[in-house]
Write a structure and sequence with these properties.
With about 400 residues, this protein is α+β, with helices and mostly antiparallel strands. The chain is about 15% helix and about 35% strand. The protein is built from 6 helices and 20 strands. This is Gp28/Gp37-like domain-containing protein.
């Protein structure tokens, strides 16, 4: 199978036939974050892309991703008497639309150049995680969003199946995409994809259940008996814990504020130290919601682990057929000094030249694990998220 790239216009219509003459594609698929890809080739081929246009990616018959062009970089130079004119176009997946809206405390309240106040401090909802994803999206971004100027008319939302378990969320000016990613963590993969099933191009939100395949889909070296997929190369990053103990105060005042603590016994045992971190929970006095938030933070901060490997051509496993982004898989790394506590596939990187199929490189680990991340960058990103939370809580 080979990759196919089909340009589309701002209204989602296909503007050209399958693109020919491109030279290289690098795609990064992410779990509950927008995928990105970079396309390289002669300018004469890639100039079909302009601001507002996009493309649809297929690997054989499988639609991998769809999205919008966001960066254009053209370079020309003379090599002797020959002019080399090349272009690089960067794309971001349609899922990014979730990050273009904030969650208003009151999604029905329009904001204008005239200052106004919201009638409520938080948009508080209790429901299944899937219902919450669809509800917040419908009111802040959907085709019937409560403020007409915020609507994405081309977006179609599915019917909820009530998945993910019940929880409570209090939204206040956080990015819709961050809220959705948090609600989908561990059970669902949320994407927005190009769809033509009705004959009219549209953007369809898809929520797929992620599977725990760790007993059957195991990656390792050829000498590992359980392995069905093998490493061509591999490496890991193991960081000391940002926290081993997450502590939260509830919404009461002063001495009346109740404190809750959850700990990671595995991180404490491995590092022989405790690190306590206060997680702001001043917006709620719901014990279940506080525990939910503390456990999420603890999962992110207790011994962050990232494992990256390229899958060898041998073995019985095939990407997308047997496993996908968001799946939990088995990994047996020689001498890894710590069990991979979160074996979720966070990223899959595929680099192909035209006419090739490419080999996927997988990044597995705790939330926030990325191929290009390092310890300092990961902690900076988390610090910025904490600052954003403080800003929206005011």
């Amino acid at each position: 199978m080979t990759w196919r790239i089909t340009p589309r216009d701002a209204d989602l219509g296909r503007t050209h036939a399958q693109l020919a003459g491109w030279t290289e594609l690098e795609l990064v698929e992410r779990y509950n974050q927008p995928c990105t890809w970079v396309l390289e080739g002669p300018s004469s081929v890639l100039r079909v892309f302009t601001a507002g246009t996009g493309c649809i990616l297929h690997d054989g018959d499988y639609q991998v991703a769809s999205g919008q062009a966001r960066l254009f970089d053209r370079r020309t130079e003379y090599a002797g008497n020959r002019l080399q004119d090349t272009m690089t176009v960067g794309f971001v997946e349609d899922t990014r639309d979730l990050w273009t809206r904030l969650c208003y405390p009151d999604p029905a309240h329009p904001l204008t150049s005239t200052p106004s106040t919201f009638a409520t401090a938080y948009d508080t909802r209790t429901d299944s995680r899937e219902d919450l994803i669809l509800g917040y999206t419908a009111d802040n971004l959907g085709p019937d969003a409560l403020v007409a100027s915020r609507r994405l008319a081309q977006l179609v939302l599915p019917v909820s199946l009530g998945r993910g378990g019940t929880t409570t969320r209090k939204a206040r000016m956080e990015k819709l995409g961050d809220l959705v990613a948090g609600l989908g963590e561990g059970w669902g993969r949320v994407r927005i994809v190009h769809d033509e099933a009705t004959g009219t191009p549209r953007l369809l939100m898809k929520i797929d259940t992620v599977q725990d395949l760790s007993a059957d889909v195991v990656f390792g070296s050829p000498g590992v008996a359980r392995a069905a997929g093998y490493f061509k190369r591999w490496g890991y990053t193991l960081a000391d814990p940002e926290m081993t103990d997450a502590i939260g105060f509830d919404a009461n005042e002063k001495v009346a504020r109740q404190a809750t603590r959850v700990s990671s016994a595995a991180a404490i045992s491995l590092w022989k130290r405790r690190t306590e971190v206060l997680v702001d929970q001043s917006e709620t006095d719901d014990t279940a919601q506080i525990l939910d938030a503390l456990n999420e933070k603890l999962a992110e901060g207790a011994t962050p682990t990232s494992v990256e490997f390229t899958v060898s051509a041998g073995g019985d496993l095939r990407y997308r057929r047997d496993y996908n982004v968001g799946s939990r898989v088995g990994v047996e790394i020689p001498d890894l000094p710590h069990e991979v506590s979160d074996n979720t596939i966070r990223e899959v990187i595929t680099k192909v030249r035209r006419g090739e199929s490419g080999k996927p490189s997988l990044v597995i680990g705790t939330p926030g694990a990325e191929r290009r991340s390092n310890k300092g960058a990961a902690r900076l990103n988390k610090a910025l998220l904490r600052i954003a939370k403080m800003e929206r809580s005011r």
